[in-house]
Design a protein that fits this description.
Elements: E1 15-16, E2 19-21, E3 24-26, E4 33-37, E5 44-49, H1 53-68, H2 77-93, H3 95-106, H4 110-133, E6 137-139, E7 146-154, E8 157-161, H5 167-172, H6 175-181, E9 184-188, H7 195-206, E10 214-216, H8 221-230, E11 236-240, H9 243-255, E12 260-264, E13 270-273, H10 279-291, E14 303-307, H11 308-324, H12 343-358, E15 362-365, E16 369-370, E17 377-378, E18 381-384, H13 391-394, E19 401-407, H14 410-418, E20 425-429, H15 433-442, E21 447-450, E22 469-470, H16 475-481, E23 483-491
Parallel strand pairs: 1-5, 8-9, 8-11, 9-10, 11-12, 13-14, 13-20, 14-19, 18-19, 20-21
Antiparallel strand pairs: 2-3, 4-5, 6-7, 7-23, 12-22, 15-18, 16-17
Helix pairs in contact: 2-4, 2-7, 3-4, 4-6, 6-16, 10-11
The structure holds NADPH dihydro-nicotinamide-adenine-dinucleotide phosphate.
């Protein structure tokens, strides 16, 4: 910590990580190295191995052996729960280290990273209970000669591919639930944000997870990611990222072993604000919904669908909020909006801002690259006069860019909200319960917020409608997702012969 300000210091030298197989860290050795620079400061912070496909095979073999010999799935729920609980406690013990590397590699504010890490410990603690309560069903109504059971069994070896926007949070929305079900794991984080996934693997071993149950391979999506989605010995794959790569995942599963898939893809999420809302609360929520994580969230509220009678006044409130939000160095405790995570994403966001202007939208505020001497930052951006065919209204920008789309009636609000290929999340702001429930029922989205946004926790499931994905993560739904259902028919007494 720099004592003269509330700012953490940069590391003196980058930290080197190995990858993780069979309960052990494997050093970089002769492999190529990916050197990651902090997006907020442009200095090297981590060195990560570029694994080979042989390394991936070794990791899948380890996960396969650990699953097939039942060293994890054969334990009772109490034993699995104990490991998950200890993991939660160890995450809390190492929370400062995890938050620091999350911030260094991703560019998110340190205060936000700390809150996310605490939420991740909570995921493990909650999922420990699910390891004990996962159960099937029975049918006692099949007559005196038959009894039926429905059992849930872990699906097997699960590959996890995570993106760079919430490297630790997205991982922890999956790993505890997958482990609660009895599966084993091979995880591939985004190459630019691998550190905290590697730390989690060490923690799981320390918490007592048997070797081979959590493996991490590092490297680029086009090499290691592609090899993982095509791997014939992986039974299920959980992918979070762009819709374009999601399509490749589906194709690869079809070409290879029809592995089961969970997909959490893009979103173009509406924030629907009615004139009868608490407009102060709504303005704060809408600003948070697009500013949080620099808008690099699949659930960012990037379309402001606002009742026309209050649209101008509401736009002014958002502008005032954007003027006061603290953008800057992610290592500073006061920062609310940090850096853009990758150069490519920075270019993508700026190109959408240019497209918005070129297509005739009115730039109300922001839209600029902010200069803090180093790193890449974009000011929170508000566009008015946005029409439904514009790119900024239709495509996922994944940045702090909010598009205003006014409406005149409830029906029109619902129509605009549903006018997208996605269906990940939506928020509605109104004090009228009838309107809130009607909109909640009719807008197609997997996550819904009423008079709030982006809240969540380990209990409620995550996932999308339409092209936002398949399946659900978290909650008991998230554990069941990683199970197969088996029907068991049990005959009672003497069989009626087929051949007399
Ligand atoms: P990607 O979909 O390319 O990356 C997500 C993950 O998939 C990363 O781990 C990446 O690895 C991996 N990956 C990339 N290519 C392949 C492949 N062929 N096979 C298997 N895995 C692969 O997203 P980008 O990072 O390129 O971001 C592009 C856009 O995607 C963003 O602008 C945003 O719109 C959207 N996005 C959505 C996210 C969400 O949460 N829904 C998260 C991230 C992005 P690596 O990074 O190492 O290449």
């Amino acid at each position: 910590m720099d004592k003269s300000s509330n700012r953490l210091s940069l590391p003196a030298s980058p930290r080197e990580f190995g990858f993780y197989v069979n309960g052990a860290c494997i050093p970089i050795g002769s492999r190529e190295v990916f050197s990651r620079n902090s997006p907020g400061h442009d200095v090297p912070v981590t060195r990560i191995p570029k694994c080979t496909t042989d390394d991936l095979d070794m990791a899948v073999d380890a996960a396969r052996a650990a699953f097939d010999d039942r060293r994890w799935s054969g334990l009772n729920g109490q034993a699995r729960a104990a490991v998950l609980l200890r993991t939660g406690a160890l995450i809390r013990e190492r929370s400062e280290e995890i938050a620091y590397f999350e911030t260094l590699e991703n560019g998110k504010p340190i205060s936000q990273a700390r809150a996310e890490v605490a939420g991740c410990a909570d995921m493990f603690e909650y999922a420990s209970g699910l390891a004990r309560s996962l159960h099937g069903d029975s049918f006692n109504n099949l007559g005196d000669g038959m009894f039926g059971l429905v059992t849930r069994e872990p699906v097997g070896v699960v590959g996890i591919i995570t993106p760079w926007n919430f490297p630790f949070l997205i991982l922890c929305e999956r790993v505890p639930y997958i482990l609660a079900s009895g599966c084993t794991i091979v995880a591939k984080p985004s190459e630019v944000t691998s550190a905290t996934t590697l730390i989690l693997a060490q923690i799981l071993t320390e918490a007592g997870l048997p070797d081979g149950c959590m493996n991490v391979v590092t490297g680029s999506g086009s090499t290691i990611g592609q090899a993982l989605i095509e791997h014939p010995h992986v039974d299920m794959l959980s992918f979070t990222g762009s819709t374009a790569v999601g399509r490749r995942v589906v194709e690869a599963a079809g070409r290879t072993n029809f592995k089961k898939l969970g997909l959490e893809l893009g979103g173009k999420n509406p924030q629907i604000v009615f004139a009868d809302a608490d407009l102060e609360d709504a303005a704060d929520g809408v600003a948070f919904g697009i500013g949080f994580n620099t808008g690099q969230c699949c659930v960012s509220g990037s379309r402001l669908v606002v009742e026309r009678s209050v649209a101008d006044a509401f736009a002014q409130k958002i502008q005032d909020k954007f003027a006061r939000v603290v953008v800057g160095d992610p290592l500073n405790e006061a920062t609310q909006i940090g850096a853009i995570t990758t150069d490519a994403q920075n270019r993508t966001i700026m190109s959408y801002i240019e497209k918005g202007k070129a297509e005739g939208a009115k730039l109300i505020c922001g839209g600029e690259q902010m200069d803090f001497g180093r790193g890449q930052y974009i000011s929170p951006t508000l566009f008015g006069d946005v029409t439904s065919e514009m790119a900024i209204a239709r495509e996922e920008i994944f940045g702090p860019v909010l598009a205003i789309m006014p409406f005149d009636s409830v029906e029109e609000a619902i129509m605009i909200a549903n006018d997208t290929e996605y269906g990940l999340a939506a928020s509605v702001w109104t004090k009228n319960i009838d309107k809130a429930l009607m909109v909640t029922r009719r807008v197609q989205a997997g996550r819904f917020w009423i008079n709030t946004t982006l809240s969540g926790g380990p209990e409620l499931p995550l996932g999308g409608f339409r092209q936002s994905g398949w399946g659900r993560e978290a909650g008991m739904y998230g554990v069941e997702e990683y199970t197969q259902i088996k029907s068991v028919h049990i005959e009672i007494g003497k069989r009626t012969p087929w051949i007399a």
